[in-house]
Amino acid sequence: MKARTVLLLFLLGMLHFSAYSKKTILDTDKLPLEIYSGKQGKFHVQGAVVDLKQGFVYFSFTTKLIKTDLNGKLIGSVDGLTGHLGCLTQHPGNGKIYGSLEYKNDNIGKGIRKELGKETEKTDKSGFYIAIFDVDKITRPNMDAEKDGIVTTVYLKTVVDDYYAKVTNNGKEREHRYGCSGIDGVTFAPRMGKKGNGEEMMLYVAYGIYGDKDRTDNDYQVLLAYDIEKWGKYESPLSQQKKQLSGPKKPDARYFLYTGNTNYGIQNLTFDPFSKNIYAAVYKGAKTQYPNYSLFVINTQIPPRKEKLKGINQKGMVLSLLEAGKKDPATSIRGWDFPWGSTGMSAIGDGYFYISHNGITPKDKQQYTRLILYKWIGNEQVAFELCR
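The structure corresponding to this sequence follows.
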């Protein structure tokens, strides 16, 4: 009986998995044009996932996860995080939400703890994790991130090593390999260069990258790829006082994407099975030798190529930007000047996306977002078209 149950669960998971990888036909007339998060306190939205199949929406507001229905009605929330919960993605098989989670002793981390009134709380040294939310257990508001058994974490040793590394660039010793400030953008997508049906999905984790204009080794986006099939052995219940160190020793692959430096790297990633592209939203960079676009699109169909990295004394596996959008004549970098997406982007099928328009209420200074429905256009000037 147990074997039959396991087999049934496996088959159901594969059905969900396959449905994710194929093109769908959306009845957009039945979709809300916008989904309002409600007012959520002093920390701004970091990421969002729209699950049309189950009818739920998930928002990250830095120190908490919000679960609503498609009309924005609150279902539940997970509170009590003292770190930085960033971009979110949903596993196409098990339905769980995966998010980047940082605990840092830099200005960002200290600022979060100060706002929470926990600036004197004992903290371990900086650490970087993937937080995994069992969203079926989120049934009411203000559930506790540690006590209610909803959140597990996996430690990303490679990110920690790069964060604490010291390197020489332009004849000067500098902190943080590749300018690594931690992690933010995450998404599930096929292995790079595979042109099959996309059922073998990897978790891609993008570095946050410091915007130091005086170095040349921070002009690539860095993405780590993980096969999470065996991550069950690493998952540990969330513990914020004594952080766990269980996780893979290294990623399955490390990739570089040449975009020029951006302010804190890729903020949001989302994979669109319709186009087979990964969409990356950033805060614009400040180096004047680059076009400083705010949206880049990764073509997952082109195999990574090994080449010498510009401004870095090493070779690496480099990803390809989509041959679309604006093209900078000096660098050949392609992208778009799209003002939204850095605080949340969720591909829902057929080239449609919900994209975060975040804001703050003028009177009580409460953060919120509205997820707005867009259609991917991708021509030279226009990235997305607003649905009406």
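The first strand starts at residue 34 and ends at 36.
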